[in-house]
Amino acid sequence: MSSDDEGGGEEYLFKIVIIGDSAVGKSNLLSRYARNEFNPHSKATIGVEFQTQSMEIDGKEVKAQIWDTAGQERFRAVTSAYYRGAVGALIVYDISRRTTFDSVGRWLDELKTHSDTTVARMLVGNKCDLESIRDVSVEEGKSLAESEGLFFMETSALDSTNVKKAFELVIREIYNNVSRKVLNSDTYKAELTVNRVITFIHKVKMRPSHFC
Ligand SMILES: Nc1nc2c(ncn2[C@@H]2O[C@H](COP(=O)(O)OP(=O)(O)O)[C@@H](O)[C@H]2O)c(=O)[nH]1
Ligand SMILES: [Mg+2]
């Protein structure tokens, strides 16, 4: 419980999932964001893992519970439990490996199949430090994001480019949609009063793009 509770503050908890092919840098994006760490040696994660990271928006504590796959993506076996309740998603590919970009459509389908609510989605072209061996252009990433209605950023978990921005943009978007919804609905107001923790999301409206 946050200290805010005594003062009647609201608390928000949003589940965000990171998906994409194996070795695109999902685990490193999360460790860079949550702990400012980078691991040059890819390690298979054991068990489903999430990390919780807080940020303050409008003076309120907003917590993101960010889930990382346990390496099941290698076997195309990410379970529905992984997606359950997610209100945000980062769909990651590696700009130096085209096959990982080709898989984005499949990941979007899977996300859609398993989510029961609208999800704030961001397409992430990771490893943008590898400019010399780039295999997917910025334009291609941008145009896919536009056609699918996704936010888009290129990131580098290695040199930290845009990592914080990418996560925070998704978190803010979820928050904005929730507060808009709350403002307009007595049901949501009641829910807020009773539970203090809400995990809802409404439609994504803006699509700012950021590049390396
Ligand atoms: N050059 C570069 N390598 C990265 C970056 N992010 C991750 N890697 C490397 O890519 C490999 C796979 O990363 P990992 O986070 O385990 O990928 P995951 O399977 O998607 O979780 C590791 O060797 C990382 O060190 C990045 O932004 N730039
Ligand atoms: Mg991983």
From TrEMBL:
It comes from the Eukaryota. SMART domains: RAB, RAN, RAS, RHO. PROSITE patterns: RAB, RAS, RHO. Pfam families: Ras. InterPro entries: P-loop_NTPase, Rab_GTPases_membrane_traffic, Small_GTP-bd, Small_GTPase. One of its GO terms (cellular component) is endomembrane system. One of its GO terms (molecular function) is GTPase activity. Keywords: GTP-binding, Lipoprotein, Membrane, Nucleotide-binding, Prenylation. The keyword GTP-binding applies. SUPFAM superfamilies: P-loop containing nucleoside triphosphate hydrolases. The keyword GTP-binding applies. It is a lipid-anchor. It is found in: Endomembrane system. Belongs to the small GTPase superfamily. Rab family. NCBIfam families: small_GTP. This is Small GTPase superfamily.
